[in-house]
Amino acid sequence: MLGIIGAMDEEVARLKEMISGLHIVQRAGMEFYKGQISEKDVVVVKCGVGKVNAAMCTQSMIDLFSVDAIINTGIAGSLDADIDIGDIVIATDTVEHDMDVAALGYAPGIIPDTETSVFKTDTELLETAQASVEAAKLDVKVFTGRVVSGDQFISSREKKKWLVSEFGGRCAEMEGASIGHVAVLNRVPYLVVRAISDKADDSAEMDYPTFAARAIDNSVRLMTEIINRFDS
Predict the structure, then answer these.
(1) Catalytic one among 80, 93, 96, 198?
(2) What is the Cα–Cα distance from 143 to 230, expressed in whole angstroms?
(3) Is-catalytic flag, 39?
(4) Which CATH superfamily is domain 2-229 in?
(5) Model confidence over 32-74: pLDDT tens digits?
């Protein structure tokens, strides 16, 4: 079974509409939509915004459904001048950029007393996503690279430069790394797919409402092709 996690209603509503044999399971204020898309067993859920919501959702999904893999789909702010609004970033790994224990001698993003603070995505899922791009017939570019996550909406050029120089991030959002953190600890393969809705700079507040709908559309089209190719 493939688990699909989105952060907001708009991200999961269209996938929910595709599910046949829909069964709803409620847990911790969330609704998990279980059924089939393209004859593949799936469970789709809205986790809510932010790392805590995303982590709680991921653990609940693993405990309730014993999913074979998890894909987090949604939108993000670009950190790379080559990545435009509407383009898609597929994560090679994720980092929690707002983890800060510098006072104890740790570099930014390092989580003390853990095996790793960089959560590598699954190679097979990444290859499946890349193979799905052409079939989805998207009129945008698709990139791979690091996705950085934190409980912040990035809307300043200074913060954007720091995320690039410190972490090498290609886009910034608020859930992916916490989903990766939980998935890796549970040894569940995961992937993060992000459509770009803004440039994560001083124009972000203006860009976000204008372009979020287009970004979500591209993400859902790509997700549909990934589901078609998913083999548990």
Answers:
(1) 198
(2) 20
(3) no
(4) Nucleoside phosphorylase domain (3.40.50.1580)
(5) 999 999 899 999 999 999 999 999 999 999 999 999 999 999 8
